[in-house]
Amino acid sequence: MNEKILALLRESSNHVSGEEISRRLGITRSAIWKHIQELRQQGYEILAVPHRGYELAASPDKLLAEEISFDLKTKIIGTHIESYDILASTMDTAMERALQGAPEGTIICAEGQHRGRGRLGRSWLSAKGKGIYCSLILRPHFSPAESPKLTLLSAVAVCRAIRTTTRLDCLIKWPNDLFIGNKKVGGILTEMNAELDRVKFVIIGFGINVNTPLSLLPPKATSLKDESQERISRVGLLREILREFEKEDLELRHGKFSSVLERWRKLSTTLGHRVTIASPKEHIEGEALDIDDDGGLLVRLDSGFVEKVIVGDVVKVR
Fold first, then answer.
1. Can you give the residue range of the structural domain that contains 49?
2. Which of 82, 89, 165, 286 has minimal CB crowding within 10 Å?
């Protein structure tokens, strides 16, 4: 009901009377007041003018379901949104919802996390109210071997959304880190539940340092606010991420993954450079030539042999 009341207030260029809200939504005046109070507690500035009604003066920059869904205009991604103040991890909650049968496109968002995590079991700092911490549930119709495509697709979607929203020169470091210059601003985590020949569901988690103070970030990390020197709307950026994700996902569904790959290559800060790659088993050094359809990084070693790397951390040498 809160979302319906917000929709009425937003569609009006002036005040909306309690009588009109009551008539259109079929609820009592006292129920309207209760919902208005709930919205105010969430951070909405709603004015009540005697004999005229209610007016929405300002909306909070919080990752609330009502805010994210407003004017989103997607058909799959974000059609169901759960928003929380604090979670242990959006990935854990998304995993629970997926196992319970949550529909494809479900988004789990939190203002902060106690145990946010990144790749290879690393922790992810999740300052409350400063960044974007979300996980997306997908149910693709392909084999587990194709799941790396979603990692590449996700990086392209988030990177393009950041560039569109902030005009910053955001780039992708293989496989799924987001950089501005030589500083990390975000990361993407992919987890999968699958059988031998089919994927049951995939969860894409992304964490972005939006308005996070540098004092709270680790060395070699940055935030969009620090790079742009202005405060960034977290809700606006998240909406753009979801729209971009749906565009890229449709390309994949229509058999046009080559187009996604080409965009990844253009946004890459890894390809064409000499790199060292630290993996659990070994260190590899050579020139990063390309990525293949599986998301593997093709590295030409000094011996001339081209090796495909699936897992590891890249450090650009020159």
1. 2-58
2. 82
Q: Name the nearest CA neighbour of 150 among 120, 175, 118.
A: 175
44 lies in the same domain as 70: no
* Cβ-contact 58, 25 below 8 angstroms: no
- Taking the C-alpha atoms of residue 162 and residue 77, their distance in angstroms, rounded to an integer, is 18
Q: How far apart are CA 154 and CA 176, in angstroms?
A: 8
CATH assignment of the domain containing 301: 2.30.30.100
Tell me: do 87 and 227 sit in the same domain. yes
Residues of the chain with pLDDT under 70: 116-124, 280, 316-318
88-114 pLDDT, tens digit per residue, is 999 999 999 999 999 999 999 999 988
Token representation of residue 29: 């005046």
Count the Cβ atoms, other than its own, within 10 Å of residue 216: 14
Q: How many domains does the chain have?
A: 3
Residues, the chain: 318
Q: Whole-angstrom Cα distance, residue 89 to residue 183? A: 24
By C-alpha distance, which of 163, 299, 293, 290 is closest to 232?
163
18-25 and 29-42 are packed helices; what angle lies between their axes, rounded to 10 degrees?
100
Under DSSP, the state recorded for 74 is -
pLDDT > 70 fraction of the chain, expressed in percent and rounded: 96
What angle separates helix 257-266 from helix 148-166, to the nearest 10 degrees? 50
206 and 174 fall within a common domain: yes
pLDDT in tens, 205-256: 999 999 999 988 888 899 999 999 999 999 999 999 999 999 999 999 888 8
Place of tokens 């020139």: 287
Neighbours of 157 (CB within 10 A): 27
Q: CA dihedral defined by 173, 186, 205, 190, rounded to 10 degrees?
A: 20
